[in-house]
Design a protein that fits this description.
mainly alpha; rod-shaped
């Protein structure tokens, strides 16, 4: 059933229709109008259900974003400490510390992207 089918059925009558045909056409149009109303109601119920599910999910996403932020801050502090310690270490130890720092920096970058995605997901309900 579609709006186009509804219009086709509504406009498909002869202009010289008898009263019985007019009555049948009106009955068919009433049936189609009822079907349209029921389908519209079902769509509204689906939209409401999806909205409720999103509202249940989004607080968890916001909490995840908060945890990611705390983790990123801890990583920033660790990286700063590694950088400070590397100034005191020998060349071999500096190389190892720089590799660790590089790994931590890459992890921080990836977690930063994750945080941005989660933040967008947590605020997505405002765009609905």
């Amino acid at each position: 059933f579609s709006v186009a089918a509804y219009l086709d059925l509504a406009l498909d009558s002869d202009t010289t229709a008898s009263p019985a045909e007019d009555e049948e056409l009106q009955r068919r149009m009433a049936e189609l109008a009822l079907q349209l109303q029921l389908q519209t109601q079902a769509c509204h119920e689906d939209i409401g259900r999806i909205g409720a599910e999103l509202q249940a999910i989004l607080p968890r996403c916001a909490a995840d974003v908060g945890r990611v932020g705390v983790g990123l801050e801890g990583m920033r502090i660790d990286a700063q400490q590694l950088l400070e310690e590397s100034a005191l270490l020998s060349n071999d130890e500096v190389s190892s510390s720089l590799e660790t720092l590089s790994t931590l920096h890459a992890l921080r970058s990836n977690l930063g992207h994750t945080k941005d995605i989660l933040k967008a997901a947590a605020t997505w309900d405002t765009t609905l």
